[in-house]
Write a structure and sequence with these properties.
The chain has 12 helices and 8 strands. It is mainly alpha-helical. It has one domain: Glycoside hydrolase, family 3, N-terminal domain (TIM Barrel), CATH 3.20.20.300. Helix 3 packs antiparallel against helix 4, helix 4 crosses helix 5 and helix 4 packs across helix 12.
């Protein structure tokens, strides 16, 4: 899965996206000007290859690439807090929010948003924080299950991240390589619980660029122990394993781009992401072409399974009600 430079496809990008080794595109804020523009961009991407998965990080809060003309989704921590205040109403809101987020993304022609965050945190991790529903694993599971149900109602598969949990380290894996010294028992008692409970509801899982030396010497995204031993065998997860972005500093523990790609694929990743580094992406693409690697059939399961138009959304009472509620919560939070 690769990224794009701007709001329109370059001639060179059309050639790259037509390559059989490219299975997906992820959009960032720099690729979006308006709903109409992003819909035209997606149509153009589809002309290069109809099999591509088109993704975005549209979690809400700090991580929301689609902004102008889209609903402002509050951080997941606010949804978790609403469930604490009133369980029934809070769970209904979490479900409606998952549905609304997924519906807006699908209405633009995309397939998935990499959500929800299943990390267990509140104020500890510099990169997670309010992106998490709660610092209580049972509350994370409770809230995320409702959010996932809403995504499914819209026709979108959910991707849980960042396996086995990013909430126990302060460091930001975009900027450095975090190390978490907790034992497997400690992880099982806390961070792993949402992944264990929700693995059957997830179409995809994204591992963290974190090393747990008390468990395995390799960083999770490059670890056969974590991805095959724990995720596949112990948890019985049968969906798609997406690497987190291989251009993140946390991934540099594995070496250069070809080293990272090779180790991630060997460890068990079904799709690897190389973003914000065109040269690195070209290196990986050339490496995969040389090996004549075959695509993973499971990735097709991440395609959106139903279509909804903006006109249909805007006429929906559920959409209007949820949008208004989220706007109120966002205003209160700011």
């Amino acid at each position: 899965m690769l990224d794009l430079l701007g709001t329109e496809l370059l001639a060179s990008e059309r050639i790259i996206l037509s390559n059989a080794q490219v299975g997906g595109v992820i959009l960032f804020a720099r690729n979006i000007q308006s709903k109409q523009q992003v819909m035209a961009l997606v149509e153009d991407i589809r002309r290069c290859s109809s099999t591509l998965i088109i993704a975005v990080d549209q979690e809400g809060g700090r991580v929301q690439r689609f902004k102008e003309g889209f609903t402002a989704i509050p951080p997941m921590q606010i949804l978790g807090d609403q469930i604490q205040l009133n369980t029934q109403l809070g769970l209904e809101l979490a479900q409606d929010t998952g549905w609304l987020m997924a519906s807006e993304v699908i209405a633009c022609g995309l397939d998935i948003s990499f959500a929800p965050v299943l990390d267990v945190d509140r104020d500890y991790s510099s990169i997670i924080g309010d992106r998490a529903f709660s610092d209580n694993p049972e509350q994370v599971t409770f809230a995320a299950k409702a959010f996932i149900n809403g995504m499914h109602q819209a026709g979108m598969s959910a991707t849980g991240k960042h396996f086995p949990g990013h909430g126990g380290v302060i460091a930001d894996s975009h900027l450095e390589a975090p190390v978490d010294h907790r034992s497997m028992q400690q992880l099982q008692e806390k961070d792993l619980k949402p992944f264990v409970a929700l693995s059957d509801s997830l179409g995809g899982i994204m591992p963290a660029h974190i090393t747990f030396p008390s468990v395995d010497a390799s960083s999770v995204g490059f670890s056969e122990y974590w991805l095959q031993g724990v995720l596949r065998q112990q948890l019985g997860f049968e969906g798609v394993i997406f690497s987190d972005d291989l251009s993140m500093k946390g991934a540099d523990v594995a070496g250069g781009y070809i080293d990272k790609a090779e180790l991630a694929l060997k460890a068990g990743c079904d799709m690897i992401l190389v973003c914000n580094c065109p040269d690195g992406a070209q290196e990986v693409l050339a490496y995969m072409q040389q090996l004549e690697m075959k695509g993973c059939e499971k990735i097709a399961t991440m395609k959106a399974v139903q279509n909804i138009s903006w006109q249909q959304l805007e006429k929906s009472e559920r959409y209007t009600k949820t949008k208004n509620t989220l706007q109120t919560l966002t205003d209160m939070g700011s």
